[in-house]
From TrEMBL:
GO molecular function ontology, one term from the record: transcription cis-regulatory region binding
PROSITE patterns in alphabetical order: HTH_LACI_1, HTH_LACI_2
CDD domains to which the protein is assigned, alphabetical: HTH_LacI, PBP1_GalR
Domain HTH lacI-type: 2-61
SUPFAM superfamilies documented for this protein: lambda repressor-like DNA-binding domains, Periplasmic binding protein-like I
Keyword ATP-binding belongs to the record: no
Top-level division of the source organism's lineage: Bacteria
Native species: Metabacillus arenae
Entry-linked InterPro entries: HTH_LacI, LacI/GalR-like_sensor, Lambda_DNA-bd_dom_sf, Peripla_BP_I
Official protein name in the record: LacI family DNA-binding transcriptional regulator
Keywords, alphabetical: DNA-binding, Transcription, Transcription regulation
Amino acid sequence: MTTIKEIAAHAKVSSATVSRVLNNDPTISVTAETRDRILEISKELGYKTVRKRKTEQKLSRATSPRVGMFLAHTLEEEEDDINDPYFTGIRLGIESECLNQGIYSNKIIRLSDDLQDQIIDDIDGLIVIGVLSPSLLNLVTNCLEHVVFVNHSPDENKYDSVISDFEKATTSALMHLLNQGYKEIGYIGGQEREQITKEIVEDKRHTTFVDLMTSMGLYREDHVFVGEFSMTHGYELMKDAIKKGNLPEAFFIASDSMSIGAMRALQEAGLRVPEDIAIASFNDVQMAKFASTPLTSVKVYTEQMGRIGVQLLLDRISGREIPLKVTIPTKLNVRESSGGKKEE
């Protein structure tokens, strides 16, 4: 962006003189030649006054779509999950892409009693993060024509959505452990619930684990531990597994936060990762590679999910009628926590 100082250097006058000329200061005394030279140079360099830039920003705000971001959590649940890097990444992607697209009114809507009033209040489209009950889904889609779902696809024949392939990602992590020589593999994971009925939502990480291990004749129900998606629950569930005894050789754990908690429980019990228990994790957030034992983890591109959600919404607002379902690929990043099984 061109500065007043640059214009002054070209015009061979002081910055103060340039500023006063460009802002039409009636008290300044300069020759017509100097004034014309300053104005011509500023035009050539593409300079815009502060007033003009503010006017353009106001016009952009007035004409750009008004986007809402619906967090399918109560405020209390959101405070509990505020440090969850997974959903934080999705929100960051949405906010960044809104700025990139010149959208300034990205409103945050939370689960509450006045939901309908929030939704219909001055927005053109909505990005939903999380799972909605059928009643909430009907309320949202009846209020707004343009809705995109991120991290959930309620009906791909009706609604735009952005998801990651959890089935393929889980399979890649499990096959990595199996190829390392592990046969006894346990599972630690959480449950996601729909917020009104509290009905448990299917988790593809869990169901894929059960299906794959069963198909290979290796599934053991007593090696499966399910609680909530948090570091604390990862710690407590691993303590339960240790207390039960007869630990598997390895665990697939459904989030990095849970894996960090689980490794703490193993450390307290005097067990080493991967020498005693190998671990493959999920999400591959930044802390995964800085854990006490760096985590083998499936990378989920959460920020890109949020960005594509915004792009789909703007495309819908522009007139596209056919719903799109975008599946973002994942990547298994192998680190020390899943070291090869020792030979007998």
